[in-house]
Amino acid sequence: MAVCVAVIAKENYPLYIRSIPTENELKFHYMVHTSLDVVDEKISAMGKALVDQRELYLGLLYPTEDYKVYPSYQLCRYGYVTNSKVKFVMVVDSSNTALRDNEIRSMFRKLHNSYTDVMCNPFYNPGDRIHSRAFDSMVTSMMIQVC
Amino acid sequence: MEGLTLSDAEQKYYSDLFSYCDIESTKKVAANGRVLELFRAAQLPNDVVLQIMELCGATRLGYFGRSQFYIALKLVAVAQSGFPLRVESINTVKDLPLPRFVASKNEQESRHAASYSSDSENQGSYSGVIPPPPGRGQVKKGSVSHDTVQPRTSADQQEPASPVVSPQQSPPTSPHTWRKHSRHPSGGNSERPLAGPGPFWSPFGEAQSGSSAGDAVWSGHSPPPPQETWVSFADTPPTSTLLTMHPASVQDQTTVRTVASATAANEIRRQSSSYDDPWKITDEQRQYYVNQFKTIQPDLNGFIPGSAAKEFFTKSKLPILELSHIWELSDFDKDGALTLDEFCAAFHLVVARKNGYDLPEKLPESLMPKLIDLEDSADVGDQPGEVGYSGSPAEAPPSKSPSMPSLNQTWPELNQSSEDTAIVHPVPIRMTPSKIHMQEMELKRTGSDHTNPTSPLLVKTSDLSEESKINSSVKFASGNTVDGYSSSDSFTSDPEQIGNNVTHQRSHSGTSPDNTAPPPPPPRPQPSHSRSSSLDMNRTFAVTTGQQQAGVVAHPPAVPPRPQPSQAPGPVVHRPVDADGLITHTSTSPQQIPEQPNFADFSQFEVFAASNVNEEQDDEAEKHPEVLPVEKASDPASSLRVAKTDSKIEEKTAASVPANVSKGTTPLAPPPKPVRRRLKSEDELRPEVDEHTQKTGVLAAVLASQPSIPRSIGKDKKAIQASIRRNKETNTVLARLNSELQQQLKDVLEERISLEVQLEQLRPFSHL
User: Fold this and answer.
1) Eight-class DSSP state of A77
2) Secondary structure letter of residue B332 according to DSSP
3) Among candidates B597, B751, B539, B581, which has minimal Cα distance to B675?
């Protein structure tokens, strides 16, 4: 399950970032931030047309990182970028369940769909932080159940 | 919880209240909705209510048992009396007045309260209790016996506004009068909206009074108790009240009032039956919504676009966040537009929210848009499935909703909105300094001389990207050798240049060291080789002066390998044709010419001006190379060179020679141009007087070429035209030269900087 989910706008500022509360959130923020570089790299390395969803999914951004702190997670970061250069970064804990690529893809698909739903809301100004409860609930369903 | 001791009055009062709340007649559990309303009517701040709930244990249990309810009531009394809420206070506070639940509907209620308070026993027990608004109050006060008659009557008086008052439940002990009212629960169309918590009634009253302060009223209410504690409360909004309120607040009061009353009458959502479905829209409400829909979209089967809906709902003055949530709930098919059903649902939610009811997390069933039939809720079940979108193909992000007919229509809207997010393909990020890019562009512009023997230099621009860094260092080396890293060659400063230098290198690579130039500037994406060849500056384009420092340092700031001035001048004058010759000259001369400090050797110009000076070039060339590079860089270059000569140059000098050579090989600019440029640049660059003189000389030379143009009027028209043509050519050439020189100037400047840095590195202590 995801440990942290972040939606980053085109200009590389976060629209939505949420991590499991028990962990040091700052650490996750930092991880997401550093992942942005990798995401940008992959974007630029790719061809121009990013229509295929396969290309939207960037895959594992960073080698597994051992989370040395007590929880000893094995954190993997996955990235996904939309055609509008909105990036989704997800940090998953693979220590418990080895998440398959398909699962990650489906998680991103759900994220993407929820994000588009948010965008369709006329009261949502693109560039604002996402406060949608539906989005929140969807993300919650993906996150690790702690507590 | 410790034992609760109640006085008789309290006991009775509490039991009546409990009965009131016990809509399900379980005699055990008080309906959370009712309790919530009751507590709201207590006019206590929300957090206090919450605290009370926690204290009484309801939050633990999740429901209000009789004991919890009693405790809660006691705590309400405690709170109302101003005592701190403590578990102990339940029993310790003596002579606590009965908790007061203020309906505050209007003075009638207060009257009731007064009447109640006057009473002692039964009523006295309700002393503090002000009967809630007619509908509610009656229910609440159900247990209050006859005294309630008064409120009842008052309530009855208020009835006209709301035809029927039917407390949702009939407290078992409700007085007859109450009963009368309470027995209306049935059907509920005409039921009075009971659900409305006390506070809501005041707004209603106000609405009735036609005040447009309805909005203010909403805001004035304390927020409904937090959702979490009211597990089952969430969906028990007094829709009817809300709805009545809403129209009042939003719409014209008179109409609203009527509508409100009508809706109130109808709405009473059959509490008993609608406990599960508090969000049902009554007919009046629906009619109202439909009318509103029509004002926006005459076609009832059409859609209200998101923007129009946004404006409309913004009028309700709800916070954007809540409106956003309402939209999420109501836009069933997620198409960015509202159908009639969706609109009604949204409107209903807005009304509910304005009345203080929390928004549900999920769209209530009764509000789900019905695709097929307005009344047919059979489709509701289908809706949820579609709402998920989870199954929607992920390919196109926008393709959310499954099969909603409206989807296609609203698609364009979505597209627009998504387009707003600027779908753009990745934009390559240029890492190289823009200057380089600029130069590149200039090169391309001006350039066309790809004949530059130092074509490799031209190429290098492309190579630079990665190697620039490395190259730069290398280049510097070469540059050093060159000394003036001829613009084309070795502006090691430029990453590109460097690369080129390396590639072509001339042998310089070995020379310089290296300088361990600082990591070469990021590769320049620019194609670079454009006519860079024509411009010596090819490399100069690589801006990186700063970065190149190291490399550049090694690179002697020697003038860009422009064709030796001596040579340049000559050929330049004669146009490109001569340039070749010039180039050759330059190539030769540079070698001979060590990086002489005295770049400003304007003699060349003079020579040049004089004629196609090729012979003299050697000397001049020597100077030129240095001059040349300077030319490019204009003054700074010259100064740079000078600097070099002064200090770092020493190293450079050695390098410069080779650099010159390299320069020669890669004529800084197309032969003619460089020459010309040199002339000009030198003119410009050389602040020295000599330059001026030379300039003049050069100019003269240039002009000399022009004289060829027949001036005599008497000449044939042809001659005139020829002369015109020639002039134009000259102009073109000069323009190109100018641009090239500009570029060279830039390059030289960069090189200079890099060289200075290098110098500093090499002799850090030589100067401060």
Assistant:
1) E
2) T
3) B581
Which of helix, strand or coil describes residue B333? coil
Return d(Cα A131, Cα B309) in angstroms, integer: 19
The end-to-end CA distance of chain A, in Å, is 14
Q: By C-alpha distance, which of B40, B39, B18 is closest to B29?
A: B18
Distance CA B229, CA B320 (A): 25
Q: Phi, psi at residue A132, to the nearest 5°?
A: -60, 130
The whole-angstrom separation of Cα B68 and Cα A54 is: 57
Query: Taken in order A71, A76, A80, A86, is the CA torsion positive or negative?
Result: positive
Q: Report d(CA B374, CA B559) in Å as an integer.
A: 85
**What's the CA gap between B551 and B84, in Å, rounded?**
78
- The secondary structure of residue B598, as a DSSP letter, is -
> pLDDT tens for residues B623-662?
444 444 444 444 444 444 444 444 444 444 444 444 444 4
Nearest to A121 among B328, B392, B422 (CB): B328
Cβ–Cβ of A116/B398 closer than 8 Å? yes
Angstrom distance (rounded) from CA B34 to CA B270: 14
Q: In chain A, what residues touch B361 (CB-CB under 8 Å)?
A: 133, 137
Q: Is the interface score ipTM higher than 0.90? A: no
* A107-138 pLDDT per residue, tens: 888 888 888 888 888 888 888 888 888 888 88
Q: Which residue has the tokens 């009261």?
A: A123
Of A40, A83, A113, the CB nearest to B392: A113
Burial string for B596-617 (b: 16+ CB within 10 Å, else e) reads bbbbbbbbbbbbbbbebbbebb
- Amino acid in position B408: N
As beta bridge partners, residue A7 has A16, A88
- C-beta of residue B594 within 8 angstroms of C-beta of residue B483: yes
